[in-house]
Amino acid sequence: MDNETFRRYGHEFVDWLADYFENVEKYPVKPGLTPGDILSKIPLSPPKTGEDMDHIFKDFKEVIMPGITHWQHPGWFAYFPANNSPPSVLAEMLTAGLGAQCMIWQTSPAAAELEERMMEWLRDMIGLPSGMAGVIQDTASTATLCALLTAREVKTDFRTNEEGNSGDLRVYASAETHSSIEKGVKIAGYGKENLVYIDTDENFAMIPSLLEEAIDIDIKNGKIPACVVGTLGTTSSMGMDPLEEIGSICQKYNIWLHVDAAYAGTAALVTEFRGFMKGAEMADSFVFNPHKWMLTNFDCSAYFVKDAAALIRTFEIHPEYLKTTTDHKVKNYRDWGIQLGRRFRALKLWFVIRSYGLEGLQQMVKNHVNLTRQFRELLESDTRLEILAPVQLTLVCFRYNPGGMAEETLSEVNRKLLEKVNASGEVFLTHTSLKGRYAIRLSVGQRNTGIGQINKAWELISQHAGD
Q: What are residue 18's DSSP bridge partners?
């Protein structure tokens, strides 16, 4: 493709994207397809000769688009959001065009130094201690794996990287923790059997006394407590672990405290919503995802550490071909995580923060919290519907429960209710299980969601409840 052809299609694609942003609500949020529907429309073999872009773009619109689940739809209430925004998309275009490989300072000085400054901005914006240093990871799963690996090395005086794991190290997390914790524990070599789940209270938050009890038992049995993962905003219920009490226990036993605030961390932009962060200053590491709620398209996960030297010592490696004369003066982020190759993710953060400003981002968060409150009030007005978890920030967990039904029957009735609501194509909700009870989740956080979508969700729920 020559430059003029690229220019023409570039304009066409941007026009298409602008139309998509404007008209995304006209699509069904989730396509009504069955497995294999899209696959059957894609040739078994690649073309022998190059095809023109008109044909490729036509197939994109006719083959791919009918199979897209529209995360940017204002009726998106599923999982947690994965927002983008026009400034972020424009920055991503520039990143793709530049094609920079940002593994060390020398390979793109602007990328390294912009990332350093963006992490300082984010740290201050959400109220973390000024001494914490940050790096952009791809996802919270990767950030948590970095925390688990660093905790492992700190606890073994960095011998495990040299000698391997003895199998005596223990990790603790709430029973409501994200599945990535178990995956990280397995990848980091702790072993699944060394992940200790701590029960939660009526608010689905870790019970500190049970954590300390588990630690004491492990020490008596010759185990070595290495890491505690505290969660601010569990996926199922938005449960908030009490970090202040957990942090005190970690300090008492010299255990690494990692805090997973992947979604909820964005709420800390608003000072009056920051109560759940109490104790976060005791964390050794902390992660939240601007690519969830902060209008920065995937992938962009902000990972902060109190002891950057420990992180670097865990991951650094110095092949001759990567050594430069500036290494002692700069941050080479290839040493701050698992990946050697790194994308220029800081650019889209810069665009988003500058375009919206702190006040604009705060207003978005406040608006979503207010919409959630309005939905909760609608639920409370109908005695057939039951809220199953404390409503915190932007997540409501509920079910249809008119009384007199067995738990198994309630689960089936609510499963069918969720299917009927989602079949409308106008909204998309998901489910979870809370202490054995089937719960429907409505998560407010999509950039363009307004009261109209809240009312539509309520209308559909009311219409189909009891069908």
A: none
Distance CA 371, CA 358 (A): 20
User: Which pair of tokens denotes residue 67?
Assistant: 């199979």
Written as six digits, the tokens of 425 are: 């194509």
Could you tell me the pLDDT band of residue 323, with boundaries at 50, 70 and 90?
Answer: confident
Residue 16 predicted with pLDDT over 90:
yes
Query: Quick one: pLDDT at residue 330?
Result: 84
Fold category of 362-464 in CATH: Aspartate Aminotransferase, domain 1 (3.90.1150)
CA dihedral 141, 144, 150, 154 (to 10 degrees): -150
pLDDT at 72: 96
Q: State pTM to two decimals.
A: 0.94
Q: For 100-343, CATH number?
A: 3.40.640.10
How many beta carbons lie within 10 A of that of residue 438, not counting itself?
20
Domain assignments of the chain as residue spans, ordered by start: 3-76, 100-343, 362-464
Statement: residue 1 has pLDDT above 80: yes
- Report CA 328 to chain centroid distance, whole Å: 33
Provide mean pLDDT across the span 30-52.
94
In the CATH scheme, what architecture does the domain 3-76 have? Answer: Up-down Bundle (1.20)
Ramachandran region of residue 289, left (φ > 0), alpha (ψ -120 to 50) or beta? beta
Residues in Cβ contact with 164 at an 8 Å cutoff, skipping those fewer than 6 apart: 189
pLDDT single digits (tens) 170-226: 999 999 999 999 999 999 999 999 999 999 999 999 999 999 999 999 999 999 999
* Long-range CB pairs of 9-13, under 8 A, 24+ apart, other chains included: 9/53, 9/57, 12/57, 13/57
The Cα 386–Cα 365 span in angstroms is 25
Q: How far is CA 39 from the centre of its chain?
A: 28
